[in-house]
Each structure stands twice: as structure tokens, then as C-alpha cells.
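# nightly structure sweep
# worker-07 picked up a monomer target from the shared queue
# config: single-sequence mode, recycle default, output format = C-alpha cells
# input follows
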Amino acid sequence: NFSALLWYPVSAAEQGAMAPDGLRSTGSPFPQWSAPSAVTPTNRSPHLTTLKPSPITWSNLILPEAALADCQYLAQRVQCQRQVDEGWGFADLGVAQTGTLVVLAGQAGTGKTTVVRAIAHDLGVAITCVDLAVTPPHQYGQVLADLWAIAPQPPLDPSQSAIADPDDGEISVILIQSAHLWLSASAGLLTTELHPFLRHCRQQPGLVLWEVEQAERVAPQWLEYMDQVISLPLPGEGDRLRLWKMACGGGVPLAPRFDFKRLSKLDLTGGQIYQLARDGAIAAAASGGKLTLDLIQRALERRGYDRVLRQFHASRTRKSRKQVP
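# output follows
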């Protein structure tokens, strides 16, 4: 229900300065905007994409225990907030909040998008996505209008949703990738345009996740709107061992004495490990053979991972020296 949409006020003097398309010209890299008067369906927006719920769950994530618990709490927050606020009286204390905004930080391949998919799986809803890195800056204003117009949706399959009360469970899950382009201190988005949007997000049932590589790049004025900042670390050697075994554990035929421990010493993200395992598996399938470390080495070479290749060769040298009597 968007009858109570926030709107960006335009004075009579400003109306006289309107550009021909009805938007104000202010020197910003994109036009300023007013909140739309009608909801635009997501599937009609050229800027947004929709990811339907997938079978990805928390078991697909290998994260430190504390980081995993923080991510799972995001889904729990959405699931239980109605019960807590209305049933347990927190709304009467003035601390109830409908929407949740979170910064999700981590290098590429650390699992940020997988976290979002697991949350959507728990809630049984689709994810609305926009990647600002592939959005021309002059279209940022329209992207904001498109995001503003997203209506909360009921679970696609209420019987599978973990929302406490599916009948009242209309929510939205929005993922904004490359969010530093809006949230950093040097971003071109004017504060007068982003402030009302963030206030609006806090009033809409659901979750808005802002993906960045470094949490430090988010300006303090935007951090004030965020309920939580979650940083996903690079995997350590033990987690890399589990990631390699998970990547190769779906029926991939392995060569005898396939050395997972050696691979775990390579400084790679989870995303890179999955890519390399898949590259090697494709080569194995094409040759009718089994996955070997030589095929993983060729995958490293094809992807240009020179630094990791040096680690790979050095680990073989150290192993050879240990075997010398």
C-alpha cells in the first residue's frame, strides 16, 4: 500500500526551474526526482532484476561462526519483528521498526550474494537487485524511483516460508550491489535525494542490503541509517579446505590421492575456489578422465592467477624437499 509514500517536496520557485522532462536540473550527474505516484512493477524496470528463491541455504555457506550467526539473524529479524513489536509490546515503547537496512561488506567471492540468497530462501521471497557498477550515473535518479516503487510482496510459497505469520508476511528484499557508488563520501548522489529514500526503506516491511567491498567506504551520514554492518572475511586455511571439498563433493571423479590440503594453502576466496574446481571439472569431463591437480594448475593459468600459481609451485617444492631422505 503506497498511499502513504514519502515524497520529495518541490517548491513553487523550483517548479519554475523544472527541466522539460519535469525533473529539476541541479548540476548533479543525474536529475533529481520526486517519489512516483504509481507503483512500477519490477519486471518492467530496465534497471532492476529479480532473482527468484533458489535452493541455496545456510549449509552452502562456510563462514566464521560469528559472521554466520549475524547473517542468519537478518532473516530472523524480519520473521519475528511483528510478533515482538505488536505481540510483546515493543511498539508501545516507540522502538518498533518495519524495514531493516544492512551494509554487507567483503571482497568479491567472499559469499555476499550467497548470504542474500540464503536469506531469501528462509523468507520465501524473490530478491530485487540492482548493480550500480553497470548503471550509468545519469540514470541514478530513475533507479531510485524504481526502487522506491517496489511494493512488499507475500511469500511465493507461504507453506515454505519461515515468516511467523505468512498471512501478514508481505515483505521485500532488495540487494544494491556496488553500493559505495551511492554511500561513499565522494559519491555523486546528493544527500537531498538519498535521505528520503533511506527513510522510506525503514518504513517498508523487509530488508535492504547494501553490498560494498570495504565497510570503511560508507560515509558516516549513511551509517546512521544502517541497523547493522556485517563484514565477511577472507577464508582461512581450514575454511578453504572445506570449500575445496564442498566444490568437489558433488560426484566429481577425483584422481587418486587428490591433495586437498595442498590446495587449501592457496590464498583464494570461496568464489574463486568454486570457479577453479568447475574449470578443472570441465577439463576432466572433456577428456573423459578424472580431476587432477594438473587440471587445477591449468585453470589457475587460464584465469591469470599468477600470484596463486607461485604459491602452488612453492608448495610442491616444499613437499618434494620433505620427501627427500
